[in-house]
Task: structure prediction
Amino acid sequence: MMNNPQAPPEESTPHPVPAAPAVHAHGLTVRRGTGRNPRTVIDSIAFDVPRGRITGLLGPSGCGKSTLMRSVVGTQAHVTGTLDVLGRPAGHPELRSRIGYVTQAPSVYDDLTVRQNLDYFAAVLEPGRAAADRRRDAVTRAIADVDLTSRAGALAGNLSGGQRSRVSLAVALLGTPELLVLDEPTVGLDPVLRRDLWNLFHDIAATRGATILVSSHVMDEAERCHDLLLMREGRILAQDTPDALRSRTHSATVEEGFLRLVDQANTEAKAEATR
Ligand SMILES: Nc1ncnc2c1ncn2[C@@H]1O[C@H](COP(=O)(O)OP(=O)(O)OP(=O)(O)O)[C@@H](O)[C@H]1O
Result:
């Protein structure tokens, strides 16, 4: 899948958007920290993630992207408000096999090979001898999807950072999830690998109809998304397509548009404070 540079991400065609979003949030609030001083890090936000498309969650470091993603996959405590994922409340046991989640730090075993890592996680997903053939096929396909077939026998500990990230992504692809939640998957990757990964995300959305929620603090990656959620300080600053955002902020790039919205929000906050 990654050997397809002919298909620029911008030109890939997302599946038609069905009515029900993959993720629906309303009044979503998250508090973090223990003891006497838990802080509100996500503050009563509302947003939708449309199905079959790539939604970029963008914003500066510390704005709450990882917390929001953890809430969507159901691993975050102290979440209140409405958060529905694939038609179920976030964290519902039925969602476990329907969501693939890649955390910021690649979660692979360094002392196992790429294939052994995948075999292990495949067995956790679908245990038992009866499923052995299906597991083997799923593992082979996931390794091919992330273009690591030639390194399948290499120890994960001997791979580059980008290759290790791709092993994590392959693990997330194992169960052919309907929703992929990817927390800054391109951090630290060189431009070629970043482009290849974005091509892969577009392939996955277009060929499988999967929904992808992907975070980044690199604004130029926003241009590669179908839809954007721009976050700042625990709030959603904008939900738009890159085109609509550029156009309504009269900006040449999403980054410029984002900065305009930040300035506007700051001005409004100051005016509010002096009232
Ligand atoms: N375990 C924790 N306890 C208390 N506060 C936390 C904890 N983890 C994160 N936070 C705070 O929650 C806020 C949001 O953090 P989060 O990791 O979600 O941001 P982010 O946008 O993903 O940042 P980055 O891009 O740097 O990963 C930050 O202010 C952070 O300090």
Q: What stands out?
A: Residues 1-11 have pLDDT under 50 and may be disordered. Residues 254-274 form the longest helix (21 residues). The beta strands are 23-32, 39-49, 54-58, 79-85, 88-89, 99-102, 179-182, 211-216, 227-232, 235-240. Helices lie at 65-73, 114-125, 132-145, 161-173, 191-208, 242-248, 254-274.
